[in-house]
Amino acid sequence: PRDLEYLGLLSQEEFQSLTRSLRFIWCARNHLHYLCGRKCDQLNFENQLKLAKSMEYKNVNGQKPVERFLGDLHGRMEYLKQQHLMFLYELGLEKKRQRRRKSKKKSKVEGLEVIKWGMLNFAAPEKILASPDLLIKIFEESARLKIPLSAEAKRLVKEFLYLVNRNYRNSQPIVKSFERILVAAEPTFNVLNEMLNTGFLVRFIPEFRNVINRIQYDEYHLYPVDKHLLRTVQTVKKFGTAKITSLEPLCEAIFKELKNKKLLLWAALLHDIGKGESEDDHAVKGREIIIKILTHKGLKSGDIETVAFLVQEHLFLIKAATRRDIHDEETAIFCARRIKNIVRLKMLYLLTVGDAIATGPMAWSDWTAALLRDFFLKVLNVLEKGELATEEAVKVIEQKRNDVVGSVRTPKAKKEIADLFASMSPRYRLYMPVRDILEHIEFFHKLGDADFIWDIKRSSDANTRSVTICAKDRPGLISKMAGVFTLNNIDILDVQVFTWRNNIALDIFKVKPPPDQIMEDEKWARAEQNLVSALSGELNLRAALEKKVAAHHNSNLRISNKPHRVTVDNTSSSFFTIIDVITYDFPGLLFSITDALYQCGLNIWVAKIATKADQVVDVFYVWDLNGDKVDAPSDVTKIKAAVLERLPPA
User: Fold this and answer.
1) d(Cα 428, Cα 421) in Å, to the nearest integer?
2) pTM here?
């Protein structure tokens, strides 16, 4: 590396930074070899914890030792990566772009020039002293021309960062330049990333310093907070292109409708800024920080409030969609009342999607996308048309009754259908489409003397299966179904339970397909036989699942040890008690919880399975056997104890 400095390819400061980075990485590697007793260059979860302890990292300001160690390691490796890319670009070895030595692009800004290999540079260092706004203009030109800064330009930006003081970063021309960069069409590289790596972004937004290389040690977040924020901006900007809208076409339409995209992008850039000061309530803390930042930047009060709202509520839609009954009009009304206007809802939806995609595959899937999209449309409908009043609900049910009865011709058949429709629960009649009601009636007629029949359909908008089960109702039916699915390695995503007054249970499961989709039909046939045996008492599900659960606990290493939590909510729904169980996933989890709730004398009407960082959230809408909410303190305590007893030690 010293030769690179002598040859003028590295500055003295860059050489020293490179030396420090290599020394740290080699030190960590040596510690890892010592811990493993052999050569080992794979830093897995288990060794990350040991290495942080071996290198004497301590808990500081709520950050775990392993998070601080990984943050330092990421920072050093990122520096090596940036130096490597700089060499490749300057030496013309980058293969992604077929560049000519003389670029035809010209800068329109006096004091900037396009040099060989098509890179931006300052015309002379003294130009920066004469016109400090060149420090941000070079990034603005980079976004406009879609070309990167040269290595020398990056060095000069770092050397002149002292010019970016309070007056500079809050100057209106400078803020406007930054906003033009923020809303610029996304090039093949990220200009904000260049601003971050040169240190300009931290000087322009000092609060950003607290999230630099900040690691969240769980299985959910793949990137440090600072990189995640830039990826979120990049993802949201791609909604205006064809790069991502093939997956989310609704996002393209909404993004193009927005008149003030900069507010959404400000929120995308800063939505997790609160994590620099607080992990637990980072959205609330983020709101406080946002108001301070944007007030200094001179934004209008109404715009500041919009961005602050988006930051504070950036988890609101995803939590509601994945943890609450989105088929319940009350859920959509509650969200609509909180969001209040259509433009905010659309921006919040785009921010939610961008945030989830930028987080990683654990946060975004076809199923999550479909849930969030459906829920967004329901809330949008409430905001556009108003809340569904009781009289309107009655009209909807009456119209459905007429459509269902009108589907048959003879008076006898009409009476039978009318009687059957009357036996259906009001909730079922209100939320189920007429097409599905007719299918379920036909399903009921096929049941006959059998214990159950089921129908399995592929979902059109997600890689999931919809399993509709019509059965003679009996206590513990849901837990038995959950156990059978677990026994066959079929993951449950969502359950809708409908019980008719004629003692018929109609349950709709949304599940992931079996792991081996080539043999899927055989797997479903086996699951069906297992359910027959479980309902007849021939199959002891608890015993059958014990080996599977034990094997999982012995082989599965968790990277954190957060406690289990069970909450009982009697305020969010007018008709149901909502039970949230936050725990770690394991085979048979849903069976264990539903069986515990059954033993407590509760009927489950809705079950949802969601993700919370490295934990899962299982949500249940329940009644007691009398059809009432469970609000007696003694009953609430009993439910919590019963569920916690069925969970393994945290």
Assistant:
1) 10
2) 0.86
CA distance 189 to 87: 16
Residues 595, 610: Cα–Cα separation, whole Å: 19
The answer to whether the beta carbons of residues 511 and 521 sit under 8 Å apart is no
Structure tokens at 350: 């785009």
Tell me the longest C-alpha to C-alpha distance in the chain.
98
pLDDT in tens, 417-455: 999 999 998 888 888 999 999 999 999 999 988 889 999
Q: Using alpha carbons, list the distances in angstroms from residue 33 to 24, 40, 44, 54.
A: 14, 6, 13, 12
Sign of CA dihedral 101, 102, 104, 108: positive
Enumerate the β-bridge partners of residue 498: 506
3-state secondary structure string across 55-121: CCCCCECCECHHHHHHHHHHHHHHHHHHHHHHHHHHCCCCCCCCCCCCCCCCCCCCCEEEECCCEEE
Tell me, what amino acid is at 46?
A: E
Rounded to a whole number of angstroms, the distance between the first and last alpha carbons of the chain is 48
The owner of tokens 């791609």 is 238
Q: What is the pLDDT of residues 507-540, one digit of tens each?
A: 999 998 888 888 889 999 999 999 999 998 899 8
Classify residue 591 as exposed, middle or buried by CB count within 10 Å of its CB (0-12, 13-18, 19+): buried
| Most confident listed range (350-354, 364-368, 551-555, 623-627) | 350-354
Beta sheet of 452-458, edge-to-edge order: 452-458, 465-472, 504-511, 492-499, 602-612, 615-624, 577-583, 565-569
What tokens appear for 172 in the block? 């209106």
Structure tokens that stand for 517 in this block: 């989709």
Separation CA 479–CA 183 (nearest Å) = 50
Per-residue pLDDT at 361: 79
Map residue 241 onto helix, strand or coil.
Answer: coil
551 exposure class (CB count in 10 Å sphere: 0-12, 13-18, 19+): exposed
Tokens of 635: 């009953």
